[in-house]
Design goal:
Layout lengths: L4 H9 L8 H8 L7 H13 L3 H21 L4 E5 L9 H8 L4 E6 L2 H10 L7 E6 L5 H6 L1 H6 L7 E5 L11 H10 L6 E7 L9 H5 L14 H5 L6 E2 L5 E2 L22 E7 L2
Parallel strand pairs: 1-2, 1-4, 2-3, 4-5
Antiparallel strand pairs: 5-8, 6-8, 7-8
Length: 277
């Protein structure tokens, strides 16, 4: 992948430290170091609203790891991870390449800080390929036609589209379902969709306005969706067992305890995996 000091400096210059960004809020909640005061303020407001926010984010991350491992063990060797966030423990390429050293991964995020750190840290298996590009989920054609995407992924072979914890930052007016359909249409039969999404279905006591308020001054709003709205993203594809369920219930590791999450053991997120027929 192209990786020059000049490119990283240019990307860093575009980082708006005064405005919270979902990737950096998420980084803070995972005890990362690549965040700023605005990100920490938004995260602490979420924690105040829901004391189990940190544990829920970790449960969300653990779901991603289990789902990627499932796909890699099922023979998937190409991953398009959109809205990846700042590199941390258990990245998609690390998990996939543990199973298949030849696995290929393209990471996509619209925060320049992801590009800065990704280019420096995302070194994959010598047999596989890993790259990171700066682009926006809402512009499928830009991502799908990007030279680095095309260099790493062969769209005549099955691809896993990974949309973990990102679609709830796309408003209904921006047509998230339409964007997902665009990605689904770009990949051949045998491809997979791995998706997770924030919900308030397990928190009837929380007003949507209160839950989304910490993101009012961020670069993207928070849009929690219902089970029916999340399930709709998988329309036309075959959802694998156990279906679209709370992330803590998707093929949990042996010994996993819901009780580890304060506030009733809910991670406030749905997750699922589907196959293109």
């Amino acid at each position: 992948m192209p990786d020059t000091t000049e490119a990283r400096i240019a990307a860093a210059a575009r980082i708006n430290t005064a405005m919270a960004h979902p990737a950096r809020v998420y980084d803070y909640l995972l005890d990362g170091k690549d965040n700023f005061a605005a990100d920490r303020e938004a995260a602490e407001k979420l924690i105040e609203l829901s004391p189990g926010t940190r544990e829920g984010v970790r449960a969300h991350r653990a779901f991603l790891g289990r789902a990627v491992r499932y796909l890699a063990e099922a023979g998937v060797a190409q991953f398009l991870d959109i809205g990846t966030g700042i590199p941390t423990q258990g990245n998609t390429h690390e998990i996939a390449q543990q199973v298949n050293p030849e696995a290929r991964v393209v990471y996509v995020d619209n925060d320049p800080i992801v590009l800065v750190h990704g280019r420096a840290l995302l070194t994959g298996s010598p047999a596989g390929r890993t790259t990171v590009i700066e682009a926006d989920l809402r512009q499928p054609d830009v991502i799908l036609s990007h030279p680095e995407t095309r260099a790493v992924i062969d769209f005549t072979r099955p691809v896993a589209i990974v949309l973990a914890g990102v679609l709830h930052f796309i408003t209904d007016q921006e047509d998230p379902h339409g964007a997902v359909e665009h990605y689904k249409n770009a990949v051949p039969a045998g491809s997979h969709l791995l998706l997770s999404h924030i919900t308030l279905d397990f928190a009837p006591q929380v007003r949507k306005e209160d839950f989304t308020k910490p993101y009012d001054k961020s670069s993207a709003p928070m849009v929690p969706r219902t089970h029916a709205e999340v399930t709709r993203f998988f329309d036309g594809w075959n959802v694998v067992d156990p279906g679209v369920v709370e992330v803590v219930d998707w093929r949990p590791d042996e010994g996993a305890q819901r009780e580890d999450i304060p506030g009733g053991g809910h991670a406030w997120a749905y997750g699922g995996v589907a196959t293109k027929p």
